[in-house]
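Take a look at this chain, tokens included, and explain the fold to me:
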Amino acid sequence: MSSPDLKVIHQPQATESDLLSKVIIIERGMRNLSDLKYLFEELKLVGYRVSMENAEVVLQANIDLGGVFLADDGDRNTECFALIQKIHESRPDLPIFLRISPGQRMEELPIDVIGAIAGVFTSGDTGRVRELVESYLF
């Protein structure tokens, strides 16, 4: 991945026997990126930060991606939900993991969004992120 739109948030140290997976992260919160970075090291994920505006181009140009981490920031949820639908329509094989607000439940999301995502997690819930990654990426 050499696109100028991508910012590597984590490149784990790996040996030849390690299985790595590339994921993109569409996230505005630096704290959430930091949480993901430490977890990605442990899970051997290569994380690339992408803007919401460039996500579709990046997805089309990089067929070797393993998944998408996307944040529902509340104030931009219409834009977020539209992007989820576009990703799901163009790359139905690609699992989408949606970060939701604490206290929000998956059942509260629009039905078409629920059908397009692999699962949800909240900020700091590394156990849930680990569970999603292990279920969908490896």
About this structure: The mean pLDDT is 84. Strands lie at 7-10, 21-26, 45-49, 65-71, 96-100, 119-122. The helical segments are 30-43, 55-61, 77-90, 111-116, 126-136.
